[in-house]
Protein backbone atom coordinates (compact mmCIF):
# COMPACT_ATOMS: atom_id res chain seq x y z
CA UNK A 1 0.00 0.00 0.00
CA UNK A 2 1.71 3.17 -1.14
CA UNK A 3 -0.89 5.73 -0.12
CA UNK A 4 -0.99 7.63 3.14
CA UNK A 5 -2.72 6.06 6.11
CA UNK A 6 -5.44 8.24 7.64
CA UNK A 7 -6.59 7.14 11.08
CA UNK A 8 -9.92 8.53 12.29
CA UNK A 9 -10.84 8.09 15.96
CA UNK A 10 -14.61 8.18 16.40
CA UNK A 11 -14.32 7.83 20.19
CA UNK A 12 -12.46 11.15 20.13
CA UNK A 13 -15.30 12.73 18.11
CA UNK A 14 -17.79 11.50 20.71
CA UNK A 15 -15.56 12.72 23.58
CA UNK A 16 -15.41 16.16 21.95
CA UNK A 17 -19.19 16.28 21.52
CA UNK A 18 -19.64 15.32 25.20
CA UNK A 19 -17.13 17.97 26.28
CA UNK A 20 -18.90 20.70 24.27
CA UNK A 21 -22.32 19.47 25.43
CA UNK A 22 -21.05 19.66 29.03
CA UNK A 23 -20.28 23.37 28.65
CA UNK A 24 -23.93 24.31 28.18
CA UNK A 25 -27.28 23.71 29.79
CA UNK A 26 -29.06 23.39 26.47
CA UNK A 27 -29.26 20.81 23.69
CA UNK A 28 -26.26 20.13 21.47
CA UNK A 29 -26.59 19.18 17.82
CA UNK A 30 -23.76 18.05 15.52
CA UNK A 31 -22.77 19.62 12.21
CA UNK A 32 -21.74 16.92 9.71
CA UNK A 33 -21.65 18.96 6.48
CA UNK A 34 -18.90 18.46 3.89
CA UNK A 35 -18.85 14.71 4.57
CA UNK A 36 -18.37 15.25 8.28
CA UNK A 37 -15.58 17.79 7.74
CA UNK A 38 -13.88 15.29 5.47
CA UNK A 39 -13.94 12.39 7.95
CA UNK A 40 -17.02 10.50 6.69
CA UNK A 41 -20.47 11.88 7.50
CA UNK A 42 -22.28 8.54 7.84
CA UNK A 43 -19.76 6.94 10.22
CA UNK A 44 -19.38 10.12 12.27
CA UNK A 45 -23.16 10.57 12.50
CA UNK A 46 -23.63 6.93 13.49
CA UNK A 47 -21.13 7.21 16.35
CA UNK A 48 -22.71 10.46 17.56
CA UNK A 49 -26.23 9.04 17.28
CA UNK A 50 -25.19 6.11 19.50
CA UNK A 51 -23.84 8.65 21.97
CA UNK A 52 -27.25 10.36 22.10
CA UNK A 53 -27.12 13.08 19.44
CA UNK A 54 -30.58 13.57 17.97
CA UNK A 55 -30.10 16.58 15.72
CA UNK A 56 -27.73 16.91 12.79
CA UNK A 57 -27.01 19.77 10.39
CA UNK A 58 -25.82 19.58 6.79
CA UNK A 59 -25.15 22.36 4.29
CA UNK A 60 -27.20 21.03 1.36
CA UNK A 61 -29.95 18.42 1.04
CA UNK A 62 -27.83 15.96 -0.95
CA UNK A 63 -25.56 15.55 2.06
CA UNK A 64 -28.48 14.23 4.09
CA UNK A 65 -29.01 11.13 1.92
CA UNK A 66 -26.17 9.05 3.41
CA UNK A 67 -26.99 10.16 6.95
CA UNK A 68 -30.69 9.35 6.73
CA UNK A 69 -29.82 5.98 5.22
CA UNK A 70 -27.43 5.21 8.08
CA UNK A 71 -29.56 6.49 10.97
CA UNK A 72 -33.14 5.85 9.89
CA UNK A 73 -36.09 8.16 10.47
CA UNK A 74 -35.47 9.20 14.08
CA UNK A 75 -32.94 12.05 14.22
CA UNK A 76 -33.78 15.48 12.90
CA UNK A 77 -31.60 16.45 9.94
CA UNK A 78 -31.58 20.18 9.23
CA UNK A 79 -30.25 21.91 6.13
CA UNK A 80 -28.49 25.28 6.34
CA UNK A 81 -29.09 26.24 2.70
CA UNK A 82 -32.83 25.90 3.26
CA UNK A 83 -35.33 24.91 0.59
CA UNK A 84 -34.07 25.64 -2.90
CA UNK A 85 -35.81 24.93 -6.18
CA UNK A 86 -35.26 21.23 -6.86
CA UNK A 87 -34.90 20.29 -3.17
CA UNK A 88 -38.57 19.59 -2.52
CA UNK A 89 -38.59 15.85 -3.24
CA UNK A 90 -35.56 15.07 -1.06
CA UNK A 91 -36.87 17.27 1.76
CA UNK A 92 -40.18 15.40 1.63
CA UNK A 93 -38.93 11.84 1.19
CA UNK A 94 -36.02 12.10 3.64
CA UNK A 95 -38.01 14.15 6.15
CA UNK A 96 -35.49 16.99 6.30
CA UNK A 97 -35.88 20.30 8.11
CA UNK A 98 -34.76 23.18 5.87
CA UNK A 99 -33.55 26.37 7.56
CA UNK A 100 -35.42 28.85 5.37
CA UNK A 101 -33.31 31.91 4.74
CA UNK A 102 -35.38 34.26 2.56
CA UNK A 103 -38.96 35.36 2.08
CA UNK A 104 -38.83 33.56 -1.25
CA UNK A 105 -37.80 30.28 0.40
CA UNK A 106 -40.45 30.66 3.08
CA UNK A 107 -43.16 31.16 0.46
CA UNK A 108 -41.85 28.29 -1.67
CA UNK A 109 -41.76 25.94 1.33
CA UNK A 110 -45.23 26.76 2.59
CA UNK A 111 -46.65 26.37 -0.91
CA UNK A 112 -44.91 23.14 -1.91
CA UNK A 113 -44.80 21.32 1.43
CA UNK A 114 -47.52 22.78 3.68
CA UNK A 115 -47.28 21.37 7.20
CA UNK A 116 -43.75 20.03 6.65
CA UNK A 117 -41.17 20.94 9.35
CA UNK A 118 -38.89 23.91 8.80
CA UNK A 119 -36.67 26.36 10.65
CA UNK A 120 -35.80 29.98 10.02
CA UNK A 121 -32.34 31.42 9.54
CA UNK A 122 -31.84 35.09 10.41
CA UNK A 123 -28.98 37.32 9.31
CA UNK A 124 -27.63 39.28 12.28
CA UNK A 125 -24.81 41.05 10.45
CA UNK A 126 -22.72 38.43 8.66
CA UNK A 127 -24.53 39.15 5.37
CA UNK A 128 -24.31 35.58 4.16
CA UNK A 129 -27.49 33.60 4.83
CA UNK A 130 -30.79 34.50 6.41
CA UNK A 131 -33.61 37.00 6.63
CA UNK A 132 -32.62 40.52 7.62
CA UNK A 133 -34.32 42.52 10.36
CA UNK A 134 -36.83 44.25 8.02
CA UNK A 135 -37.75 41.09 6.13
CA UNK A 136 -38.21 39.18 9.36
CA UNK A 137 -40.43 41.93 10.75
CA UNK A 138 -42.65 41.55 7.68
CA UNK A 139 -43.07 37.77 7.81
CA UNK A 140 -42.40 36.80 11.44
CA UNK A 141 -46.05 36.58 12.42
CA UNK A 142 -46.93 34.37 9.46
CA UNK A 143 -43.84 32.18 9.90
CA UNK A 144 -44.24 31.76 13.66
CA UNK A 145 -47.90 30.76 13.20
CA UNK A 146 -46.59 27.72 11.28
CA UNK A 147 -44.54 26.69 14.33
CA UNK A 148 -40.96 26.50 13.04
CA UNK A 149 -38.75 23.94 14.76
CA UNK A 150 -35.92 26.44 15.24
CA UNK A 151 -34.94 30.06 14.70
CA UNK A 152 -31.20 30.42 14.23
CA UNK A 153 -28.42 32.78 13.23
CA UNK A 154 -24.65 32.43 12.79
CA UNK A 155 -21.73 34.37 14.30
CA UNK A 156 -19.07 35.79 11.99
CA UNK A 157 -16.25 36.31 14.52
CA UNK A 158 -16.86 33.78 17.29
CA UNK A 159 -13.27 32.50 17.06
CA UNK A 160 -12.17 35.91 18.41
CA UNK A 161 -13.73 36.13 21.88
CA UNK A 162 -13.12 39.88 22.30
CA UNK A 163 -14.43 40.90 18.90
CA UNK A 164 -17.18 43.56 19.15
CA UNK A 165 -19.10 41.74 16.40
CA UNK A 166 -20.04 39.02 18.92
CA UNK A 167 -22.08 41.19 21.33
CA UNK A 168 -23.43 43.13 18.33
CA UNK A 169 -24.82 39.97 16.71
CA UNK A 170 -26.11 38.71 20.06
CA UNK A 171 -27.99 41.98 20.50
CA UNK A 172 -29.42 41.82 16.97
CA UNK A 173 -30.50 38.21 17.50
CA UNK A 174 -32.24 39.10 20.75
CA UNK A 175 -34.00 42.08 19.16
CA UNK A 176 -35.30 39.81 16.43
CA UNK A 177 -36.30 36.84 18.60
CA UNK A 178 -36.90 37.76 22.25
CA UNK A 179 -40.32 36.63 23.35
CA UNK A 180 -40.97 34.09 20.59
CA UNK A 181 -42.14 30.63 21.64
CA UNK A 182 -39.74 28.75 19.37
CA UNK A 183 -36.33 27.19 20.22
CA UNK A 184 -33.41 29.44 19.29
CA UNK A 185 -29.80 28.73 18.24
CA UNK A 186 -26.88 31.11 17.72
CA UNK A 187 -23.68 29.27 18.66
CA UNK A 188 -21.40 26.98 16.67
CA UNK A 189 -18.12 25.81 18.29
CA UNK A 190 -16.79 29.33 18.84
CA UNK A 191 -20.11 30.56 20.21
CA UNK A 192 -20.21 27.77 22.81
CA UNK A 193 -16.88 29.03 24.15
CA UNK A 194 -18.18 32.63 24.38
CA UNK A 195 -20.38 31.71 27.33
CA UNK A 196 -23.96 31.09 28.40
CA UNK A 197 -25.62 34.19 26.88
CA UNK A 198 -24.75 32.79 23.48
CA UNK A 199 -26.18 29.28 24.05
CA UNK A 200 -29.98 29.75 23.86
CA UNK A 201 -31.78 26.39 23.34
CA UNK A 202 -29.47 24.53 20.95
CA UNK A 203 -25.82 24.75 19.90
CA UNK A 204 -24.42 23.60 16.56
CA UNK A 205 -20.75 22.60 16.91
CA UNK A 206 -18.82 21.34 13.91
CA UNK A 207 -15.06 21.88 13.98
CA UNK A 208 -14.74 21.25 17.72
CA UNK A 209 -16.08 17.72 17.24
CA UNK A 210 -13.30 17.04 14.77
CA UNK A 211 -10.55 18.29 17.06
CA UNK A 212 -10.00 21.74 15.56
CA UNK A 213 -9.58 25.29 16.85
CA UNK A 214 -11.12 27.33 18.36
CA UNK A 215 -11.81 24.35 20.70
CA UNK A 216 -8.26 24.25 22.07
CA UNK A 217 -9.06 21.50 24.63
CA UNK A 218 -10.34 19.13 21.94
CA UNK A 219 -9.11 15.55 21.80
CA UNK A 220 -7.25 15.06 18.50
CA UNK A 221 -9.27 12.96 16.06
CA UNK A 222 -6.96 12.14 13.15
CA UNK A 223 -3.46 10.94 12.40
CA UNK A 224 -1.91 10.89 8.97
CA UNK A 225 1.24 8.93 8.08
CA UNK A 226 2.80 8.98 4.63
CA UNK A 227 4.87 6.03 3.37
CA UNK A 228 8.41 6.55 2.12
CA UNK A 229 8.70 5.42 -1.49
CA UNK A 230 12.48 5.79 -1.79
CA UNK A 231 15.46 7.47 -0.16
CA UNK A 232 18.50 8.88 -1.98
CA UNK A 233 21.73 10.66 -1.23
CA UNK A 234 22.07 14.12 -2.71
CA UNK A 235 25.44 15.85 -2.96
CA UNK A 236 26.00 19.43 -1.85
CA UNK A 237 24.81 21.73 -4.66
CA UNK A 238 22.33 19.26 -6.18
CA UNK A 239 18.71 20.33 -6.58
CA UNK A 240 15.43 18.64 -5.65
CA UNK A 241 11.99 18.71 -7.23
CA UNK A 242 10.09 20.91 -9.68
CA UNK A 243 11.68 24.23 -10.67
CA UNK A 244 14.87 23.18 -8.84
CA UNK A 245 13.19 24.87 -5.91
CA UNK A 246 15.57 23.46 -3.28
CA UNK A 247 19.33 23.08 -3.39
CA UNK A 248 21.35 20.99 -0.93
CA UNK A 249 23.74 23.09 1.16
CA UNK A 250 25.36 19.94 2.55
CA UNK A 251 25.47 16.28 1.56
CA UNK A 252 21.85 15.26 2.25
CA UNK A 253 19.48 12.32 2.38
CA UNK A 254 16.13 12.95 0.73
CA UNK A 255 13.08 10.74 1.32
CA UNK A 256 10.37 10.79 -1.32
CA UNK A 257 7.00 10.15 0.33
CA UNK A 258 3.60 9.33 -1.13
CA UNK A 259 1.17 12.26 -0.81
CA UNK A 260 0.74 15.58 -2.58
CA UNK A 261 -1.65 18.37 -3.40
CA UNK A 262 -4.05 15.87 -4.99
CA UNK A 263 -4.40 14.49 -1.46
CA UNK A 264 -5.12 17.90 0.05
CA UNK A 265 -1.53 18.63 1.10
CA UNK A 266 -1.60 22.24 -0.02
CA UNK A 267 1.03 23.38 -2.50
CA UNK A 268 1.40 26.46 -0.28
CA UNK A 269 3.23 24.13 2.15
CA UNK A 270 6.21 23.96 -0.25
CA UNK A 271 9.34 24.59 1.86
CA UNK A 272 7.04 25.47 4.80
CA UNK A 273 6.22 22.21 6.54
CA UNK A 274 7.85 19.47 8.53
CA UNK A 275 7.03 15.79 8.86
CA UNK A 276 7.95 13.84 11.97
CA UNK A 277 9.86 10.64 12.57
CA UNK A 278 9.22 10.00 16.24
CA UNK A 279 10.15 13.28 17.88
CA UNK A 280 12.41 14.48 15.08
CA UNK A 281 11.15 17.12 12.67
CA UNK A 282 12.18 16.54 9.05
CA UNK A 283 11.71 19.54 6.74
CA UNK A 284 9.71 19.31 3.55
CA UNK A 285 12.10 20.60 0.89
CA UNK A 286 11.18 21.97 -2.52
CA UNK A 287 7.75 21.94 -4.10
CA UNK A 288 4.75 19.89 -3.07
CA UNK A 289 3.87 17.96 -6.22
CA UNK A 290 0.61 16.24 -7.11
CA UNK A 291 1.45 12.86 -5.61
CA UNK A 292 4.77 13.23 -3.82
CA UNK A 293 6.72 15.21 -1.25
CA UNK A 294 10.48 15.36 -0.78
CA UNK A 295 11.69 15.39 2.80
CA UNK A 296 15.15 16.09 4.22
CA UNK A 297 15.90 13.12 6.50
CA UNK A 298 19.67 13.76 6.74
CA UNK A 299 19.51 14.14 10.53
CA UNK A 300 17.78 10.82 11.17
CA UNK A 301 19.93 7.94 12.39
CA UNK A 302 17.80 5.38 10.54
CA UNK A 303 16.00 5.18 7.22
CA UNK A 304 12.30 5.80 7.88
CA UNK A 305 9.53 3.62 6.40
CA UNK A 306 6.92 6.34 6.94
CA UNK A 307 6.71 9.91 8.21
CA UNK A 308 3.93 11.58 10.18
CA UNK A 309 2.23 14.66 8.75
CA UNK A 310 -0.57 14.92 11.34
CA UNK A 311 -0.20 13.34 14.75
CA UNK A 312 0.97 13.95 18.32
CA UNK A 313 3.79 16.27 17.19
CA UNK A 314 1.81 18.30 14.64
CA UNK A 315 -1.90 19.08 14.82
CA UNK A 316 -4.29 19.85 11.99
CA UNK A 317 -4.11 23.51 13.03
CA UNK A 318 -0.29 23.53 13.14
CA UNK A 319 -0.28 22.35 9.56
CA UNK A 320 -3.00 24.83 8.60
CA UNK A 321 -0.99 27.72 10.02
CA UNK A 322 2.00 26.82 7.84
CA UNK A 323 -0.25 26.76 4.78
CA UNK A 324 -1.78 30.11 5.73
CA UNK A 325 -5.21 28.59 6.18
CA UNK A 326 -7.46 27.12 8.88
CA UNK A 327 -7.95 23.61 10.23
CA UNK A 328 -11.38 23.46 8.57
CA UNK A 329 -9.73 23.57 5.14
CA UNK A 330 -7.07 20.98 5.97
CA UNK A 331 -9.75 18.55 7.18
CA UNK A 332 -12.20 19.05 4.33
CA UNK A 333 -9.42 18.65 1.73
CA UNK A 334 -8.15 15.32 3.11
CA UNK A 335 -7.68 13.16 0.06
CA UNK A 336 -9.95 10.42 -1.22
CA UNK A 337 -7.11 8.00 -1.97
CA UNK A 338 -5.75 7.67 1.56
CA UNK A 339 -6.05 4.28 3.19
CA UNK A 340 -8.65 5.28 5.76
CA UNK A 341 -8.94 3.40 9.06
CA UNK A 342 -11.88 4.50 11.13
CA UNK A 343 -12.08 3.01 14.59
CA UNK A 344 -14.18 3.46 17.69
CA UNK A 345 -17.94 3.16 18.15
C1 LIG B 1 -20.48 25.30 9.54
C2 LIG B 1 -21.54 25.89 10.40
C3 LIG B 1 -21.63 25.56 11.77
C4 LIG B 1 -20.54 24.80 12.48
O1 LIG B 1 -19.48 25.70 12.70
P1 LIG B 1 -18.12 25.29 13.44
O2 LIG B 1 -17.35 26.56 13.47
O3 LIG B 1 -17.49 24.25 12.58
O4 LIG B 1 -18.47 24.77 14.77
C5 LIG B 1 -22.73 26.02 12.47
N1 LIG B 1 -23.68 26.79 11.89
C6 LIG B 1 -23.61 27.16 10.59
C7 LIG B 1 -24.67 28.02 10.01
C8 LIG B 1 -22.54 26.74 9.80
O5 LIG B 1 -22.46 27.12 8.52
Give descriptors for this structure.
7-stranded parallel β-sheet, binds pyridoxal-5'-phosphate, Lyase, Ornithine Decarboxylase, Chain A, domain 1, single chain, TIM Barrel, alpha/beta, 345 residues, 11 helices, 28% helix, elongated, 2 domains, 22% strand, 19 strands, 6-stranded mixed β-sheet
Report strand %.
Answer: 15-25%
Largest sheet: 7 strands, parallel
For the largest beta sheet, what order do the strands appear in spatially? 3-4-5-6-7-8-9
Termini separation: 26 Å
Mean pLDDT, nearest integer?
97
Number of strands: 19
The helix-and-strand class reads alpha/beta
Question: Low-confidence parts lasting 5 or more residues at pLDDT below 50?
Answer: none
CATH architecture of the largest domain: Alpha-Beta Barrel
Name of the level-1 CATH class of the largest domain? Alpha Beta
Cα-based radius of gyration, to the nearest Å? 23 Å
The named CATH superfamily of the largest domain: Alanine racemase
Specify the overall morphology. elongated
Bound molecules: pyridoxal-5'-phosphate
CATH topology of the largest domain: TIM Barrel
Helix content: 25-40%
Number of separate helices: 11
Element string (H = helix, E = strand): EHEEHHEHEHEHEHEHEHEEEEEEEEEHHE
**How many structural domains can be distinguished in the coordinates?**
2
Amino acid sequence: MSTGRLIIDLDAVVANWRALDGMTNCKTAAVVKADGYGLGAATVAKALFKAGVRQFFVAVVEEAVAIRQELGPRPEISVFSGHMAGDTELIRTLGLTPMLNSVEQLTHHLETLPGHPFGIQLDTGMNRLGLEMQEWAAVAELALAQRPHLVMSHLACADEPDHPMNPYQLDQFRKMTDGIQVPRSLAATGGILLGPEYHFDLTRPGIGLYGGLPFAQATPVIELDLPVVQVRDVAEGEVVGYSNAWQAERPSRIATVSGGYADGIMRALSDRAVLFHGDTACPLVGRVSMDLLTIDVTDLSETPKKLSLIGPKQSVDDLARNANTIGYEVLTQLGARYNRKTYGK
